[in-house]
Amino acid sequence: MRRRIFLLACVLALTSCQKPLFDTLPRWRLEHARTRQPLQTPQEPVDSARVEIPLSRGVYLTAIRFPDWADWRSGDFRGAQAVLYKDSVEIRAVPAGPQPSSDRLRLVGGHLWTDTADAGQTVICCDGEERIRYDSEELLRGFLFVDGAVHTLGQRPGGAGFSYRVDGEERFTSPTGQILGSPENPEWPGGAFSRDSTGIYFVYALPIRQGSAHTYEYHVMCGGREVKEIPARTAGAVYDIRVFDGSIYRCERRNESSQSFCLVKDDLYLALDIGADELVKGCSLVPIRGKIMLKGHSESAVGNEQYWYRTQDGFWYALSRNDVRQMYEDNGVVSYVCCSPGGLVSALMKDHRPLPVTPETYRLTDGRCAQFREGVFAVALTHASGNAHLVLVDGKAIPFNFNGYFTSLTIL
Questions:
Q1: Phi and psi dihedrals of 354, rounded to 5?
Q2: Is residue 388 part of a domain?
Q3: Is 383 part of any domain?
Q4: What is the CATH number of the domain that holds 30?
Q5: Are 323 and 339 in contact (CB under 8 A)?
């Protein structure tokens, strides 16, 4: 007996001396990373799928994984699993369904949520257990887990309308509406949802024909209740609409002139310093340090592209290059991922300093596969043709080997 106790003590001593994987993380995170604790589930009889599970500090990764024999790049999705890693340790794996994608997998409230749409139904699972089922095939453009309830915005195939649901129960539906916003917007955790102390909001567009022109009118919703309609117009364009801190923001071009590009807060128009030769190609509203900014890119008359953050006071940050895929802000500093025209990662930059990566080898499969938080820039890269994937945490390379691809990265 004494010999067994002695051997057990030696094993515990050896495991407690292991070097933490992400030793570039702040000291207060390293103390938690050393323990490699699994997720803590509540005691019965609490329904764990209806409570938020606190996660310990670390880097969390979600991925779609296939059996070694499945050629998923050619469309063989048999045996797909949704996998959750903490640092480099696998802590959960559940079925991902017959048509897995990054849009159908998310880490929310400490749970691994998956959904499938097949045979006229949508099924939402929490940690591999069915939680919600309803009659309608939908792609979830918005997802929130609030006070034990699941809020979803589901777009039907071909853009043929959508439904806002709470725990699968329909609260609002439109037969032709198109949801604004995407799960790939990393600045908005709810995807197409916006949430603040005044409620849960979303925006949808209704296609309108005005003579030979096609345009849209926009409806701002708080839950199932409309709070504002933005009429259709024959000229200009609306790029994005969000609710933030109780106000309705939108960025739009009021007519065909690029100089009419503006930010609108409620009904106050704020002109932006856009030159006559600057064509805005894309723009979204993002919350940064307690206020709304515009994040987008534009092209000059000679074809040079620029990526930027803007406010009504002008540029806050601008990059004069043509290969930026995603930008991430943290406490006034910007990191970004650059990609070649073929979509392969060509450079990773943290505050204008390059991080080591082999060019033209990996893909950033989703905007949520990177995060910049409290000075740490972490990126999950999927190999373009093989299984030798890579996670970089402030330049430290951690290899991952599995048949599949990353779908998100979260720093806690």
A1: -75, 140
A2: no
A3: no
A4: 2.130.10
A5: yes
Query: Cα(277)–Cα(299) distance, rounded to whole angstroms?
Result: 8
What are the distances in angstroms from CA 219 to CA 172, 264, 268?
Answer: 12, 15, 18
Number of domains in the chain: 1
Is pTM beyond 0.70? Reply is: yes
Cis peptide before 175 (omega within 30 of 0): no
- Element housing 250 (H / E): strand 247-253
pLDDT digits 0-9 by tens, 367-404: 999 999 999 999 999 999 999 999 999 989 999 999 99
Whether 121 is covered by a domain: the verdict is yes
Round to whole Å and give the CA distance between 79 and 62: 17
Closest-CA residue to 39 (of 116, 128, 136, 99): 128
E strands, 20-148, are 59-65, 81-86, 89-95, 105-108, 111-118, 121-126, 129-134, 139-146
**CB atoms inside a 10 Å sphere around CB 210:** 10
The model's pLDDT over 92-144, given as tens digits with 9 standing for 90+, comes to: 999 999 999 999 999 999 999 999 999 999 999 999 999 999 999 999 999 99
What the block records as the tokens of 129 is 């257990």
368 with 186: CB under 8 angstroms?
Answer: yes
Measure the CA–CA gap between 144 and 146, rounded to whole angstroms: 6
Residue type, 332: G
Estimate to the nearest angstrom the gap between the alpha carbon of 291 and the chain centroid.
20
- Show the tokens assigned to 41: 């589930």
The whole-angstrom separation of Cα 15 and Cα 97 is 36
Q: Give the whole-angstrom CA distance, residue 52 versus residue 330.
A: 26
